[in-house]
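Quarterly update, task 2.4: zinc ion-bound model.
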Amino acid sequence: MKRILAAASFAARKHTDQRRKNPAATPYINHPLEVAEHLARVGEISDEDVLIAALLHDTIEDTHTTADEIRELFGERVMKIVLECTDDKSLEKGERKRLQIVNAPHKSSEAKCIKLADKTNNLNSILVDPPQDWDLKRQQEYFEWAEKVIAGLLGVNESLDRAAQQVLTIGFAALKQNREGTGIRRQEE
Ligand code: ZN
């Protein structure tokens, strides 16, 4: 329990200046908190290292946190899981996105669960509160890419799988409806 709260506090400090891309610019920390909470509630995961890694999953990629820092504070296993959830930022964005699809099936079960909860959370955010400057085409492209990553992450935890597939189904249906809605409006003009 103490370690989990220490990780939540550490992540809050590291992400303190960051905001999500939605119009309300929600504090970034809400995202790792939601991912960890989803793993515990929906996935019924109680492995402390996994919940801690979930709280820290974006710290190396998006803040100045180093792997050594995480190892010193939370141990080798947490560090390894977080590294598995970290994109190589020296690569182009397109290449990083391609690699996520290619590498997903080869991740450890722990990293698969976190990445699946991460994608589920991001898709849900796009669905209910899309980034300010994302049009429907960009949302559709994100869903299509995420679906390919998710395909490589399934098979570890049935409840997490179901939640991911559900947000994909609802999201694709909503996007289709929005597109057709816009189409109809355009015809009427
Ligand atoms: Zn994330």
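Highlight for this quarter: Residues 31, 57-58, 118 surround zinc ion (CB under 6 Å).
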